[in-house]
Write a structure and sequence with these properties.
Number of helices: 7
Shape: elongated
Helix content: 40-55%
Distance between the termini: 104 Å
Oligomer: single chain
Order of helices and strands: HEEEHHEEHHHH
Strand order of the largest sheet: 3-4-5
Strand content: 15-25%
Radius of gyration: 32 Å
Length: about 190
């Protein structure tokens, strides 16, 4: 019978057993991860839909709206557009993404396309964004000349109503106005009924 003498560099039975256990655990983790990756490729990716209530032909329906686009909504031709669309500023589709993101769709009117909001709060928030991002550093007169151009509106009358209702000058900067009062005045001029 031969007797083998263990060197200091040789591994003991205990060390060998521990080493195999670690290898088995790592192999198990790798296998589980691989199985999860393969299974996840067969599961359809959940899309983010937003369910919003929309008024369509005087009825309420549930409408699924993808966040990346606007849905066209039909409106009675005699309807007051700002009120029907919860759009106190009579806003049109905008180059400002945040404004369009607040809308649930658009309507087509003889004077063009307008944004439709789920509620008046979203409409007012969109109007505030437009005033702050586009007109903030301009005067009331400059703002209204762009916001309500003379080919569609009585621009000087519009400016006059704002100046009169708010007790300010046409040269007052938008950022120096009470923004809430300015939004309410614009909504009133646009014909928005609460």
């Amino acid at each position: 019978m031969r007797i083998y003498k263990q060197n200091e560099t040789d591994m003991s039975v205990k060390d060998i057993t521990f080493s195999y256990k670690i290898k088995n655990v790592l192999a198990g983790l790798f296998t589980a991860t691989l199985v999860l990756i393969i299974l996840s490729s067969f599961i359809p990716i959940k899309q983010n839909f937003i369910i919003k209530t929309v008024v369509v032909h005087d009825t309420i329906k549930e409408l699924v709206v993808m966040k990346h686009g606007l849905t066209e909504i039909t409106v009675d031709r005699n309807a007051n557009i700002p009120t029907f669309c919860n759009n106190p500023g009579a806003l049109r589709p905008s180059s400002i993404k945040e404004v369009n993101d607040l809308a649930i769709g658009t309507i087509q009117a003889p004077s063009g396309e307008f944004l439709h909001f789920a509620n008046k709060e979203h409409g007012y928030k969109a109007l505030e964004l437009v005033l702050k991002k586009v007109y903030w550093n301009g005067s009331i007169a400059d703002c209204i000349n762009r916001y309500a151009p003379s080919f569609e509106n009585n621009t000087s009358g519009y400016v006059g109503k704002i100046v009169s209702k708010m007790g300010i000058s046409p040269n007052t900067l938008v950022k120096n106005c009470n923004i809430k009062k300015l939004m309410k005045t614009i909504a009133e001029i646009e014909g928005f009924k609460q």
